Structures are given as structure tokens and as C-alpha cells.
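>> received
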Amino acid sequence: MQKIKKKKLTVDDLPTELLESIFFIVLSFGWAANQTFASALLVNKRWHDVARRLHLTRISLRTERQAKLTIDHILLERQRGTFAQLAPTRNLTVDALWNQPVPKLHELLQLVGQTVATLTIRGNRLSCVLPDPTKLFTATPEPIVSPIGSLPKLTHLEASHINSFDVLTLLRASSLSLITLKLYGSGIVLVPELASRMQPLSLPALRELTIRDVESEWENSRSILCKAAPGLEMLSFCIRPDQFHPATEWLRAVELMALGNISLSVKVDQAEQMESLKEEMQAAQSLAEQRGWTLKILVDAGANSR
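>> returned
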């Protein structure tokens, strides 16, 4: 009886769906994976076709040049009529290098914003991410028009060190879909000129809110966002020791029926400050027990938060 020789399987025998999954995992490593992923395009025609279809699903940019090349590539694909054959962009991460603005974010969102589900922006306080709001003011009382259009599928937004107008613009563009919002070193301060031109903020789908290292802006940001999100379930924010009592009183008055988990981070310069906070902590824990909340109090002793 003749033995049937078993063929040794190689990566070339993988089904297309599995190969796509592998490439997608590679893309999840962010900007550092760009070179590795680019190499996959050169292996053979099959790998090239699969990788090419996925290469815009996760976009991660750090420089103006990277942003320009990506935008030019998308425009070229559209011009050729092949853009619809590519998998849509789901994740967009944009970092600003030191002393550099966040590269071309509003142009990117105009091109791929309709499909982005996760958006991460890391600014550096030096310039607006989006067009300067003062340039949009006119003599007529017309409302401000968003420079980025709608972000109908955005569910997760994480922003570091961007200004109030940028935050508000992104929130309004994703108001019906946003579930998770994390702000680091960014706040919402509504100057009279801006407030009079914008409708009240509404975030009906928002369930998780994190505000970290907002300094003097934290209270304004927290109040505006919690009022806009009546269905909020998880709340996390950072305060100084002198803000502990006002924060507890605010929680006492807050009307968030779905709220269940609260994480409160207190930044102290010296360990001795902990003694003066014991009564405040006990009051906050007592309030949490009355409301049925799970309260976690974290102490950041002298460490620089993000």
C-alpha cells in the first residue's frame, strides 16, 4: 500500500482571513510597526494584496511628513477609484513631537473620520490641534461649523494636552456614539464668545469618563461633561488636597442615576498631607456607601501624573 506523503504547511497556505488577522495584530503595535508592516508588502503578490487592503485600518502618526504622506496616499487612492476596496480606518493615533504641532489632524478626520472608532491625540499645549476658533468668529450670529464634519462611529476618545475648542469640536462630532472619554491635561473652559455660539453639549451614549491632571480647569470640565452624560456609569478624576471637600460635595449633589464606579486620585506633595485628608476620605466613603457606589481613592504622593 502506497503511503501518502503529507505536505508540509507553510505560512503561504494560511487562509486569507487568518493572514488578515495576523497583519491586523502587527498593526496594533502602532507607529513602531510601520516598517515591519511595510516589509510584508514586499514578500509576494498575495501578501501584498492582503496587506495593502488593511494598511489604513490603523493609522499612527508622529510627524508632519508622515501625516502628509498618508493624506496624499488616501487622496491618490480616491483619485484612482480604489479607496473603496481598502478596509476602513478604525483606529487613528496622532502624536505631537516636542515643540511641534499635532500634524494635520483636521485634514485626516475629514478623509477617514466617518469610520474611525478609536481616536488618540497627544498634543503638547503649544498650538491648536484644529483651526483656531477665533478665526471662525464673524459679525453674524451663525453657529460655529465643525471643521472636521461628523465622527458617527467614534466610541473611544483619548486626548492629552489639547485646548477647549478642540475638545468640544471632537465631542460634538461624536456626540451620539461616544462611549469612553479620557482627558489628560486637557479641559473645557467655555469663554463667553464661544459659549454663546454653541448649543448645549449632549453625550447620551457616554458611559466612562476620565479626567486627569486638569489643574484649575478640572471642576468646569467635570461639571459640563457629567451634565451632558446622564447615563455615565464610571467616573475617574484627579484633584489636589484642597479640592477634596468641594469634590465630595459635588458628588453629593450630582444627579447620575447610573453611576456605579468612582476613582478619585489625590495628588499630595508630602506624605504628611495624608493625615489631614482622613476625615474627608471617610466622608467620601460614607457617601459612596449611601449611594451604592464603588469608590476607589488613589493617592499620588509627589509623582508627576500623565
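>> Confidence is low (pLDDT under 50) at residues 131-145.
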